[in-house]
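Dig into my protein:

:::
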Amino acid sequence: MAGPWPASSPPPRPAVLELQGVSVAYRVQGGALLAVEGASASFPEGAICALIGPSGCGKTSLVQAAAGLLKPSAGRVLVSGEELAGIRGRTAVIFQDFGLLPWKTVEGNVELPLALRGVPARGRRERVAPLLAELGLAGFSSYFPARLSGGMRQRVAIARALASEPDLLLMDEPFSSLDALTRESLQESLLEVVRRRRMTVVIVTHSIEEAAFLADRTYVMAGRAPGRIAAMVDAAARRADPDAALGAAGAAAFRGSPRYFELCVELRRALESAGSAESAEESA
């Protein structure tokens, strides 16, 4: 189970998302720009996994390929064992700028995926109301995005993603523009949502601390045009803390635990090692 709470030793979980030798190239004047080369990764059911690396290493390109927004130039994207072809209905994506429609209210934005599926208005309200309550938005349903703080807008974006009842949630730098306290609060909210809904989450981040706090598995990327997956840090076993309570209290306890700081150090070393190896390869 994702998150810093007690866990037994369950059997290996099936992969909801698999990247098999994925390369992504963009057409540019005079040819093609290879953004990512040969990326292979596996994202287990019910886990939070992170992609971390420097700017320009291809993290967003991989997320867009996983979402079906970009077609890989090589390799395969498998979702629940089937090769992805176009945008998949059980996948939701949250981008850094939230992507809210300014002319729609909070309720209207959250209802959008249901409206696009043709769900009647009454059915949309019945499904959206619990989501707004779950994410602390019940009193803001008639507000427009311009009246909300950055943290509230991100909660709306998360609620909208959950309205489609995804089994795979892709998040591209979702908390990077928020202040530290709001960011930590939303990270803890995300852990609670994943615990209750058993979603698989892939989150792109530049933050070592965010990856250490959230991720059961972190893929470290290096290089630029093309970027590559250089290492994987599997933290699931070390994140389980028998002294931590479930929920927000357990999350707060983990953030101050030796395990958390050990993971931060390990991720920093992995990033530095990947960067050093890339530099050595370029200069060879």
